[in-house]
């Protein structure tokens, strides 16, 4: 298949186009609702709270309610390792993009470039395009992200030592709890007590009887799983509405004139995912930590997200270039919203390469 055929295949794929339209359309809707004051400030905070404490944790947990096979396990472990390696690489290399800035600006911009909004911005898009497997991979990938975000990023931005309260905050995060619980249950399911369950293939409608772990609620308690799925399906629209509403509350004038914010956004949304692609391309070709198309696409989209809210909060809390951080948050969110459709198309084209099959 040549490039032209591949591009046509992607741009005519209804599910991909639907996911792109849903993402951008809902963000614009959230912007309009907040700008016209139909969505109040308190409502925006509620949307964010529901997304972070209910919808996203359930999205992560239910993605692990799936059979364990060797291929998926190998992919998951590769994604886990990549989720650690990539942040080590970004932490070391990203400050070099800002050598012309003073040390304080360079340190802050380095942290802001390394850490994106992979949970709030990335996971809903991955789920919309790649379904449960994409969510599983993104949840595993985020393990390394959270380790470094709550340790290195905090120490770098605060100038303080890591405290027990920050470690506690990290591990008591509902999304972290749901991810580790789901991952553990997924890994040990073949050793857990088994029960006979009736499983219906969602695509073909075929019905089979299989032994599954007793806690595999997708098979043993389909009514409970259906409820969890309903709540988890709120993650994408609520997150996108909140992103749009937050944009409506920001001051565009100064941010749009800030050249550093634009330069940062290019680095965060373009350069960082390119680094991810190059590294994975080279190592997969050498059969080192090889990944398939869904794993590659998940990691690239997670890398193409705007600055992490937690990182911006660090900048504000410790008075480290807080105005610059706010401007980068606004511009990178706009930049990422525009760029994500192109990244989805690019990774779909890469998926046609034999090494990512």
TrEMBL record:
GO cellular component, one term: membrane
Positions of transmembrane segments: 14-34, 46-67, 79-99, 108-129, 135-155, 171-188, 227-248, 269-289, 295-318, 330-351
Isomerase listed as a keyword: no
Subcellular location(s) per record: Membrane
Keyword Membrane: yes
Matches recorded under InterPro entries: Mem_transp_PIN-like
Bilayer topology term: Multi-pass membrane protein
Sorted UniProt keywords: Cell membrane, Membrane, Transmembrane, Transmembrane helix, Transport
Domain of life: Bacteria
Cleaved signal peptide residues: none
GO terms of biological process kind: transmembrane transport
Principal cellular location given in the protein's record: membrane
One Pfam assignment: Mem_trans
Protein name: Malate permease
């Amino acid at each position: 298949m040549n490039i032209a055929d591949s591009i046509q295949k992607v741009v005519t794929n209804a599910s991909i186009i639907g996911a792109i339209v849903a993402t951008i359309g809902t963000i614009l809707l959230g912007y309009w609702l907040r700008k016209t004051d139909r969505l109040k400030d308190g409502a925006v905070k509620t949307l964010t709270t529901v997304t972070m404490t209910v919808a996203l944790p359930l999205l992560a947990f239910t993605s692990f309610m799936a059979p364990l096979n060797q291929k998926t396990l190998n992919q998951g472990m590769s994604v886990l390792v990549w989720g650690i390696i990539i942040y080590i690489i970004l932490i070391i290399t990203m400050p070099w993009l800002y050598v012309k800035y003073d040390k304080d600006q360079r340190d802050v911009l380095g942290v802001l470039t390394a850490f994106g909004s992979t949970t709030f911005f990335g996971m809903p898009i991955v789920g919309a395009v790649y379904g449960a497997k994409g969510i599983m991979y993104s949840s595993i990938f985020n393990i390394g992200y959270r380790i470094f975000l709550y340790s290195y990023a905090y120490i770098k931005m605060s100038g303080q030592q890591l405290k027990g309260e920050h470690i506690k905050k990290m591990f008591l995060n509902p999304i972290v709890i749901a991810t580790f619980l789901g991952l553990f249950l997924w890994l040990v399911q073949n050793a857990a007590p088994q029960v006979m369950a009736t499983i219906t293939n969602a695509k073909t409608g075929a019905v089979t009887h299989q032994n599954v772990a007793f806690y595999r609620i997708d098979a043993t308690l389909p009514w409970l799983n259906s409820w969890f799925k309903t709540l988890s399906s709120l993650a994408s629209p609520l997150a996108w509405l909140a992103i749009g509403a937050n944009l409506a509350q920001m001051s565009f004038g100064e941010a749009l004139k800030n050249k550093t914010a634009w330069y940062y956004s290019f680095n965060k949304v373009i350069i960082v995912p390119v680094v991810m692609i190059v590294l994975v391309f080279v190592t997969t070709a050498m059969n080192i930590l090889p990944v398939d198309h869904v794993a590659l696409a998940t990691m690239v989209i997670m890398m193409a997200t705007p600055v992490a809210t937690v990182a911006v909060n660090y900048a504000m809390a410790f008075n480290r270039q807080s105005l610059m951080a706010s401007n980068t948050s606004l511009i990178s969110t706009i930049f990422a919203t525009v760029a994500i459709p192109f990244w989805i198309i690019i990774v779909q084209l890469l998926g046609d390469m034999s090494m990512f099959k």
